[in-house]
């Protein structure tokens, strides 16, 4: 427990207010308006010509005996938030100091840093060398060359033994991706440094202050003194002499680098990486040289952004071309999902994936290397459960998703987009596992000393780690391409939905008019057909003996035709009424309903031995009268079409899903040819002659109308002389028509 607390303390260490500085210079803190001395480093008496305690409260121009103090005072009054070199201060005693000033809260900080004997004091003197370095960096045509040139130029400017450039990953581990050195120090190229080597607050400070120099890691900190009792800590975030954490100093000594300098490389506001300079012995470089290196670091940032934008632009052009082909296929297809899966190569190439899955409207289509369908559906269900309505990306899916556990070979990486704003529908891309061997610069686990305190690593020899369960990460360009494609698909889906809504509205209006017309016509035709039948039967009863056989045949044909027409009109009237009647929804026990209908149909079973199999059936929400008609029609048909079988069999059952109950009635009767399955549920459609099986062809049309009004669907499968199975589904929730 003590070790954990110390690790936490390391992460919270207030490194921006250490209360001390490095000893190769002096720090003076003064009031911003009066420039009166408020605080000073303990050794500052060397430039104040008196002990710091006697100098507090005195204006700085009365304390420093130097030439050209007027320009120094002007610079202090105009000092910015970040440090700038105000002048080279020539003391009357002969010493030379770099005068560096910045603001910290309501104070102005002046740091007098010793000018190295071989140091260049101004940027002007460095300009020719900087210009050549910048020219070389601008001429680099690829990322690797740019980094190599930057490392060379920084080492040429500073004279350090080794210059590393390393980049942070998403977990803030840093990998050395470029290096330049003189072989006095070991090469670290390709090694990875753990995030714990640079804690969060240190990274925050690197992003704030891009330059940091430690001239000698063996230094003893110099405390900062103040004339105030219990003064607030002095913020040294931008101080060039700021003392660093003792843990970091020990880390440097363990690494064998007494001197180091760091230059932050930024990507916008984010710390992208560091240019880290090391020397085998203490080394101090002038502020002008450090500023020149900072300019090279900023140039590196700009060039990286330019190169990345060029790569992104190239990728964007290629992905737009691929996307255009996919959208063309989708637009040409009757159902856009068919078009989406038509060009498999383009669909995978859009984001450089090995496999893909399209889940839409209850359908799942797999393309390329993917997990099994049940796993894909489980992953999609997890995304829906998490409320993913736009885009999701992961390069270590088995760790993040229970549904993907054990799927490393096909689904270590997942890039998913939602392709509908109405239903949980997804397009998923998959990537397989890439087994990586990482070369760490020593064991990445920070050890504790014998007392449980934090101890920096003392070994930086390559330490290998094998990482499994991760895919190649999805690049920014690939994620952007997926997002653009999602927007295009959603636009198509919404446009199709709007078109379907308009068509449905037109169809609803037309159906209403047709239903009204059908009701009116069928109602008006009933009386004439009844009159024809009645008068013909009356004529037959009174004049049959006066008619010859042919005339009686004519009369019988009239009666039969009028009766048949009357039955058709009655059927049409009933069909029309089913579309106009309001649904009276209650909970319906379908099992009990089946038993009641079987009892009702017992007269049709006289003299027959039908083998019934009725499985347990769930309750549903619906109109009991209408659902009774559905069951009665299906069971009546099963009884009718098995009557020429020696051992008739009828089975009733149900398969339940998360969305619906799917009922079926199966028989071993006459069956039908699947080529005509589309006609089964049409009005007055028959697949058998009336001489074989009676009926007018309206029953299954009634079944379809009732089921669709309940929000379900009907379908059938069969084989001629091998029986048929009729299915109808009812939703678990009352999502159907409520009128």
TrEMBL record:
Keywords: Chromophore, Kinase, Phosphoprotein, Photoreceptor protein, Receptor, Sensory transduction, Transferase. It comes from the Bacteria. InterPro entries: BphY/WalK/GraS-like, GAF, GAF-like_dom_sf, HATPase_C_sf, HATPase_dom, His_kinase_dom, HisK_dim/P_dom, HisK_dim/P_sf. Its EC number is 2.7.13.3. Gene3D superfamilies: 1.10.287.130, 3.30.450.270, 3.30.450.40, Histidine kinase-like ATPase, C-terminal domain, PAS domain. PROSITE patterns: HIS_KIN, PHYTOCHROME_2. Residues 520-734 form the Histidine kinase domain. Residues 142-298 form the Phytochrome chromophore attachment site domain. GO terms for biological process: detection of visible light; osmosensory signaling via phosphorelay pathway; regulation of DNA-templated transcription. It catalyses: ATP + protein L-histidine = ADP + protein N-phospho-L-histidine. Coiled coil: none annotated. GO terms for molecular function: phosphorelay response regulator activity; phosphorelay sensor kinase activity; photoreceptor activity; protein kinase activator activity. PANTHER family: BACTERIOPHYTOCHROME (PTHR42878:SF15), TWO-COMPONENT HISTIDINE KINASE (PTHR42878). In the N-terminal section; belongs to the phytochrome family. This is histidine kinase. It comes from Azospirillum oryzae. The lineage of its organism: Bacteria, Pseudomonadati, Pseudomonadota, Alphaproteobacteria, Rhodospirillales.
């Amino acid at each position: 427990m003590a070790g954990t607390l110390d690790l936490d303390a390391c992460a919270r260490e207030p490194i921006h207010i250490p209360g001390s500085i490095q000893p190769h210079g002096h720090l003076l803190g003064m009031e911003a308006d009066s420039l009166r001395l408020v605080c000073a480093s303990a050794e500052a008496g060397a430039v104040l010509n008196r002990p710091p305690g006697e100098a507090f409260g005195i204006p700085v121009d009365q304390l420093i005996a130097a030439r050209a103090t007027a320009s120094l005072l002007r610079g202090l009054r105009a000092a910015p938030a970040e440090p700038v070199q105000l002048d080279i201060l020539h003391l009357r005693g002969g010493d030379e100091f770099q005068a560096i000033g910045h603001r910290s809260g309501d104070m102005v900080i002046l740091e007098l840093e010793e000018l190295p004997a071989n140091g260049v004091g101004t940027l002007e003197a460095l300009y020719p060398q900087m210009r050549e370095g910048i020219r070389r960096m601008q001429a680099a045509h690829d990322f690797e060359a740019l980094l190599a040139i930057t490392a060379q130029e920084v080492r040429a400017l500073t004279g350090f033994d080794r210059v590393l450039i390393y980049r942070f990953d998403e977990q803030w581990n840093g990998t050395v991706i470029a290096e330049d050195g003189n072989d006095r120090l070991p090469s670290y190229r390709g090694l990875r440094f753990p995030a714990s080597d640079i804690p969060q607050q240190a990274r925050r400070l690197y992003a704030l202050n891009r330059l940091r120099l430690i001239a000698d890691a063996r230094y003893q900190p110099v405390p900062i003194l103040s004339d105030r009792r219990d003064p607030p800590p002095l913020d040294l975030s931008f101080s060039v002499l700021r003392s660093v954490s003792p843990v970091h100093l020990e880390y440097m000594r363990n690494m064998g680098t007494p001197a180091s300098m760091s230059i932050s490389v930024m990507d916008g506001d984010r710390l992208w990486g560091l240019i880290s300079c090391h020397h085998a012995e203490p080394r101090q470089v002038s502020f002008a040289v450090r500023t020149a290196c900072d300019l090279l670091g900023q140039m590196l940032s700009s060039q990286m952004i330019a190169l990345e934008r060029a790569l992104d632009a190239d990728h964007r052009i290629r992905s737009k071309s691929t996307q255009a082909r996919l959208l063309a296929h989708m637009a040409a297809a009757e159902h856009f999902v068919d078009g989406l899966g038509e060009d498999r190569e383009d669909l995978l190439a859009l984001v450089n994936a090995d496999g893909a899955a399209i889940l839409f409207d209850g359908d799942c289509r797999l393309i390329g290397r993917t997990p099994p369908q049940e796993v894909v559906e489980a992953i999609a269900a997890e995304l829906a459960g998490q409320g993913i309505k736009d885009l999701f990306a992961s390069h270590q899916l088995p760790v993040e998703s229970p549904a993907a556990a054990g799927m490393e070979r096909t689904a270590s990486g997942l890039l998913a987009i939602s392709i509908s704003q109405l239903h949980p529908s997804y397009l998923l891309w998959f990537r397989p596992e890439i087994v990586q061997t990482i070369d760490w610069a020593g064991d990445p686990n920070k050890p504790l000393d014998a007392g449980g305190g934090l101890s920096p690593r003392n070994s930086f020899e390559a330490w290998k780690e094998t990482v499994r369960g991760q895919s190649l990460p999805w690049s920014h360009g690939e994620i952007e391409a997926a997002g653009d494609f999602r927007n295009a698909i959603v636009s198509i889906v919404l446009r199709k939905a709007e078109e379907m809504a308009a068509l449905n509205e037109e169809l609803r209006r037309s159906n209403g008019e047709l239903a009204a017309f059908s009701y009116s016509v069928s109602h008006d035709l009933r009386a004439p057909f009844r009159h024809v039948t009645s008068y013909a039967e009356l004529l037959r009863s009174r004049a049959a003996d006066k008619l010859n056989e042919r005339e009686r045949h004519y009369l019988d044909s009239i009666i039969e035709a009028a009766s048949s027409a009357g039955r058709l009109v009655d059927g049409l009237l009933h069909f029309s009424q089913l579309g106009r009647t309001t649904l009276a929804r209650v909970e319906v026990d379908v099992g009990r309903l089946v038993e009641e209908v079987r009892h009702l149909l017992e007269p049709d079973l006289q003299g027959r031995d039908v083998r019934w199999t009725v499985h347990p059936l769930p309750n549903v929400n619906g109109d009991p009268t209408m659902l009774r008609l559905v069951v009665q029609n299906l069971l009546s048909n099963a009884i009718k079409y098995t009557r020429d079988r020696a051992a008739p069999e009828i089975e009733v059952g149900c398969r339940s899903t998360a969305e619906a109950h799917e009922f079926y009635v199966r028989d071993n009767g006459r069956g039908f040819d699947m080529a005509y399955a589309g006609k089964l549920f049409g009005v007055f459609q028959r697949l058998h002659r009336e001489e074989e099986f009676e009926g007018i062809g309206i029953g299954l049309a009634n079944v379809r109308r009732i089921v669709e009004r309940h929000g379900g669907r009907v379908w059938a499968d069969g084989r001629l002389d091998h029986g048929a199975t009729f299915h109808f589904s009812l939703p678990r929730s009352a999502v159907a028509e409520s009128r």
